[in-house]
Backbone:
């Protein structure tokens, strides 16, 4: 089989993803089409790890033996018509975005990681800052081509195949039928990327979205698009206390502004930005932060006209003042270059966190970033922030909190100073997961479970529920070959 | 500008090419809107030659003869660009069959010799009691001289001072000036000036058909200085100086040009990707090992890690070394505008999508902090 | 102090490319912005206003579409914005532009005229000095800072080029072309934006000014653009791969870096 080659040292980069964990593999292939993928799966009986551009944070693309099926050469845009794009799964989000911009279109969710593949994004139901208004990628996927582990191909469009209650039947291209019943567990009612997506009478296309490659290989996608809003504006508002920032987030959500994004930077993030800006030329272009302000909220609005935009901005100004802020302690981005400026500011925080960890790793190689990805329902926002603060102060750890606060989904990044703190951080992380699950939240709002958060999934779902997920997997991947180690522990093929 | 309606097919290519919404197609025929700036880009975009620029009538300007070159003094000697200018002026003078005259203020013996050696047919040495660095006084004298002597072309080096002096003179003379030219030639008796526009994304070719002199400032480091043997007449003139120009240089210090980028054959460029002092030290080590110098893109100079004399780019120096190794430099057009003259460009950057890789002859995707130590240790080993 | 700031609306220059096959400008995605250098000029004016008080008038010569971009200066703190726009002014090179702008500025009161050092589309850096000549006042380029003196008619300008740094005693009124100062230009605040929403941009046309027809627009432009083209695309590039060590040794070999050693 020409497409499959023996794995060589030159490809060592492909053994890791952004979790920084590294695995091993025997063979590798770079298919260019759905047909290629089908052939590959039919001609090897090894277990298979599906890889896109390896931007995942949870080890989903890290292989532990067997074959690597790397889709990064499947990058064609097959058609773009009537606001629907049909593309191969290896197309990078940045390339898609650039292409769409020429037509005045965009894919709404806007994940932060622009070099992810569309296939990977579908497999982990990717979200971004704009998920607050537009949802994750799930509703925007209206068609998928999935290759099963036996080489059978399923082409499924949204709105065509539904479960009947919990009973379902999938039909492959060659006419083969796969029938069974769905698990009966309930998913948390929050922004979620943990575990298989299941509900009564569900549209079966959703089964594959967020399945992290455990059910089949996504090779092509049809995505619904929107026209770029005529007006995009953003405001970064500074507050003296975290409470006023949270009040602002809460009131904005309850108002009719319908923000596209609401992002948060806590006191420690701002301090870290201030310091790094002084010492590192890479960040010389960061706007100078006002003194005496300890939290910042970034709010982005999309409007169809200047009048609508100005009305929203006026309302935002009122809310800022109501919550104890000052509308002159804000940065407003109306022009595209100012907007880029605010984006730069937004992305600098996680970048600087990574830089700091990398520096510390030189001394303590065992350290990795300890970042949470948990989300809670709206009514638990204050509670969860309080929980984080109290525990972290008590444990005397160095940390920053920032993220998609509009979805009650902030990333707490503990920056351990040594191995002992690292262990302490991990323990806290586990404690929080339990508490958050009990509140009806999720342990993974956007990064996915991959291989390294399996324990957390176990907190969200009972053993029975997890076995149910495994049952569905066995149904669609009877030889247990695809992305073994992702989501749940199963026995494996050789 | 005019649309030739018979030729226009309403294909819309002109509409797509216009940067200012200056042309629209209505009922399959193109027409100009109020937003048209006469930039002429649509003319080259039309596959049917349906857009033309109406040429102005050409005046008889044969009374203007000769090429004048302004020789600017640097800290010690004449600016290198002034010498380079002489060489290109010499080339042009062959096509025009005219003389090349250098103009210099308060020259030393050495200055005169330089100007003789590099191609002047005449040298006008102006002796005047100029105030330190007063470009306005110089502009007054130069325009007077040019008005009297009527050269057809007047070239000035595009140094910071030159680019302040030249437009003042051009406005006094009510003539056209093209800035920062990288190419000059004669076509049909007039000077064709080529220069970068849109930050270097595009090149524009410009002419000045109906006023004299045709003025241009010329980018340093683009033309090579060549020696000539020819007789040379030196004319000494005295000039009064206007003491009421309204500016007075109180203090002037030359930026320590320890980098001397203009003379370096090997330059190692430091960009944002050099994000620690340790990494920067590596660049200095490499420069040392290769007999080169360290330069910087704007961020490192803004952060005060390196001095302004090391800055390359739109607001810094333009260089043309044999080898340019760009370390952690993204390749933004504002920086690349300064390195166009490099013979070989090596780019080291951890971002595979960095624009610098569009300019590089050799591309290495990697961290400066990882690659440079390897290069250094291997060079030292080989030695 | 009365400050006039000259600004120009330009395409975001990183976006400007020609389609190599059709030689047409690839326009989609090109936003028009305030010329970045003019932002520094405006920022210098704002800093002066903040410290010493000043009245800032922003003036721009451009196409009618530029009005919205010019309006933006109100959110930054300018007191007045003027757009000089007229088809008769189009096609102007730097000399004609300088004449047109200077004629408009003559109708204003000014102690100081600030321009960005150059525009990112034309890149000539000529309009500032040419305007100064037409207004018959001094000019200085590459200014990053100024200092007041006891005499309101004089300031000290700090000029910084790659070769030298100068402190220049400057008589007002004068034209200064501005480069980046020590701080980044500030972003507008939500408050200033909302407060200035209803401010008007004054429109000036040739009818409002006494202009010599021969000195404006195409007629007043001694230089003409004959052609616009893409610079030669770079030659083939060699991508060096492998581990850090392999990359280093390949590079050394390909460039014969060992031979370059002192």
Residues:
């Amino acid at each position: 089989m020409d497409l499959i080659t023996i794995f060589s040292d030159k490809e060592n980069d492909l053994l890791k993803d952004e979790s920084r964990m590294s695995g091993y593999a025997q063979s590798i292939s770079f298919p260019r089409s759905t047909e290629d993928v089908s052939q590959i799966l039919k001609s090897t009986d090894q277990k298979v790890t599906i890889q896109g551009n390896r931007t995942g944070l949870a080890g989903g693309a890290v292989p532990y033996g067997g074959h690597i099926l790397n889709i990064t050469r499947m990058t064609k845009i097959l058609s773009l018509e009537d606001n629907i794009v049909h593309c191969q799964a290896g197309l990078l989000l940045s390339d898609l975005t650039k292409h769409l911009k020429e037509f005045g279109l965009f894919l709404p969710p806007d994940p932060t990681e622009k070099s992810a593949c569309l296939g990977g994004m579908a497999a982990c139901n990717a979200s971004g800052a704009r998920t607050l208004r537009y949802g994750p990628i799930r509703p925007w996927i209206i068609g998928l081509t999935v290759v099963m582990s036996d080489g059978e191909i399923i082409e499924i469009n949204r709105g065509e195949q539904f479960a009947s209650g919990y009973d379902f039947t999938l039909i492959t291209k060659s006419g083969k039928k796969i029938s069974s019943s769905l698990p009966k567990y309930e998913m948390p009612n929050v922004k979620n990327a943990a575990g298989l997506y299941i509900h009564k009478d569900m549209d079966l296309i959703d089964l594959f979205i967020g399945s992290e490659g455990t059910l089949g290989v996504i090779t092509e996608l049809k995505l619904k698009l929107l026209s770029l809003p005529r007006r995009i504006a953003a405001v970064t508002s500074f507050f003296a206390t975290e409470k006023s920032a949270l009040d602002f987030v809460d009131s904005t959500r309850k108002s009719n502004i319908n923000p596209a994004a609401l992002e948060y930077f806590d006191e420690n993030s701002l301090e870290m930005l201030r310091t790094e800006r002084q010492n590192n030329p890479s960040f010389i272009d960061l706007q100078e932060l006002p003194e005496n302000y300890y939290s910042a909220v970034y709010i982005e609005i999309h409007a169809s006209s200047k009048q609508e935009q100005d009305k929203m901005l006026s309302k935002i100004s009122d809310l800022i003042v109501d919550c104890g802020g000052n509308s002159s302690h804000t940065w407003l981005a109306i022009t595209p270059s100012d907007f880029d400026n605010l984006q730069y500011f937004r992305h600098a925080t996680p970048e600087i966190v990574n830089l700091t960890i990398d520096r510390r790793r030189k001394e303590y190689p065992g350290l990795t970033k300890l970042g949470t990805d948990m989300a809670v329902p709206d009514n638990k926002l204050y509670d969860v922030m309080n929980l984080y603060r109290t525990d972290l102060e008590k444990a005397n750890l160095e940390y920053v909190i920032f993220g998609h606060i509009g979805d009650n989904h902030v990333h707490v990044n503990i920056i351990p100073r040594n191995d002992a703190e690292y262990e302490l951080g991990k323990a806290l992380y586990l404690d929080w997961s339990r508490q958050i699950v009990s509140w009806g939240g999720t342990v993974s709002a956007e990064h996915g479970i991959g291989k390294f958060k399996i324990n957390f999934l176990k907190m969200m779902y009972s053993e029975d529920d997890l076995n149910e997920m495994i049952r569905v997997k066995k149904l669609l991947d009877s030889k247990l070959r695809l992305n073994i180690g992702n989501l749940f522990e199963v026995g494996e093929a050789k | 500008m005019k649309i030739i309606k018979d030729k226009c097919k309403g294909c819309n290519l002109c509409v797509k090419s216009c940067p200012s919404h200056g042309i629209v197609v209505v009922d399959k025929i193109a027409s100009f809107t109020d937003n048209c700036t006469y930039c002429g880009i649509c003319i080259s975009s039309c596959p049917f030659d349906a857009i033309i620029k109406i040429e102005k009538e050409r005046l008889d300007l044969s009374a203007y003869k000769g090429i004048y070159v302004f020789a600017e003094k640097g800290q010690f000697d004449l600016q290198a660009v002034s010498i380079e200018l002489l060489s290109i002026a010499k080339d042009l003078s062959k096509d025009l069959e005219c003389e090349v005259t250098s103009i210099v203020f308060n020259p030393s013996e050495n200055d005169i010799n330089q100007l003789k050696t590099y191609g002047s047919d005449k040298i006008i040495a102006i002796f005047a009691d100029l105030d330190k660095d007063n470009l306005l006084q110089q502009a007054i004298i130069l325009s007077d001289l040019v008005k009297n002597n009527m050269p057809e072309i007047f070239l000035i080096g595009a140094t910071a001072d030159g680019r302040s002096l030249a437009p003042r003179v051009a406005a006094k003379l009510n003539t056209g000036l093209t800035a920062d030219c990288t190419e000059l030639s004669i076509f049909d008796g007039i000077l064709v000036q080529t220069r970068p526009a849109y930050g270097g994304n595009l090149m524009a070719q410009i002419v000045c058909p109906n006023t004299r002199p045709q003025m241009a400032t010329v980018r340093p480091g683009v033309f090579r200085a060549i020696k000539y043997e020819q007789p040379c007449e030196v004319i000494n003139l005295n000039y009064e100086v206007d003491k009421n120009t309204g500016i007075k240089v109180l203090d002037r210090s030359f930026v320590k040009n320890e980098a001397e980028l203009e003379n370096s054959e090997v330059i190692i460029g430091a960009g944002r990707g050099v994000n620690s002092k340790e990494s920067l030290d590596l660049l200095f080590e490499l420069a040392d090992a290769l007999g080169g110098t360290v330069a910087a893109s704007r961020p490192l100079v803004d952060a005060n890690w390196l001095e302004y004399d090391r800055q390359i780019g739109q607001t810094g120096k333009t260089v043309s070394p044999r080898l340019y190794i760009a370390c952690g430099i993204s390749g933004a057009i504002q920086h690349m505008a300064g390195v166009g003259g490099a013979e070989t460009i090596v780019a080291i950057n951890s971002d595979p999508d960095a624009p610098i890789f569009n300019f590089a002859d050799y591309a290495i995707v990697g961290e400066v902090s990882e690659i440079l130590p390897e290069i250094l240790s291997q060079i030292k080993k080989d030695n | 102090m009365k400050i006039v700031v000259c600004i120009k609306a330009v395409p975001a220059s990183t976006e400007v490319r020609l389609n190599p096959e059709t030689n047409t400008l690839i326009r989609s995605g090109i936003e028009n912005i305030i010329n970045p250098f003019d932002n520094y000029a405006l920022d210098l004016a704002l800093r002066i206003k903040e410290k010493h008080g000043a009245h800032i008038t922003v003036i721009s010569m451009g196409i009618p579409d530029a009005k919205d971009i010019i309006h933006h200066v109100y959110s930054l703190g300018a007191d007045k914005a003027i757009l000089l726009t007229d088809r008769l002014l189009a096609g102007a090179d730097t000399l004609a532009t300088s004449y047109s702008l200077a004629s408009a500025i003559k109708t204003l009161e000014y102690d100081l005229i600030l321009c960005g050092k150059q525009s990112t589309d034309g890149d000539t850096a000529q309009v500032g000095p040419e305007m100064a000549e037409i207004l018959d006042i001094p000019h200085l380029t590459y200014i990053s800072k100024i200092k007041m003196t006891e005499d309101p008619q004089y300031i000290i300008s700090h000029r910084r080029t790659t070769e030298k740094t100068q402190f220049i005693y400057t008589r007002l009124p004068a034209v200064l072309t501005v480069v980046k100062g020590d701080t980044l230009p500030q972003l507008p605040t939500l408050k200033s934006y909302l407060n200035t929403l209803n401010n008007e941009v004054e429109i000036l046309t040739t009818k409002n000014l006494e202009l010599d027809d021969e000195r404006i627009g195409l007629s007043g432009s001694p230089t003409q653009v004959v052609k616009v083209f893409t610079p030669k695309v770079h030659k083939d590039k060699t991508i060096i791969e492998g581990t850090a060590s392999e990359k280093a040794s390949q590079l050394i070999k390909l460039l014969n870096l060992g031979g370059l050693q002192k």
About this structure: Chain A has a mean pLDDT of 91. DSSP finds 13 helices and 20 strands in chain A. Chain A touches chain B through eight residues (CB under 8 Å). The two ends of chain A are 19 Å apart (CA to CA).
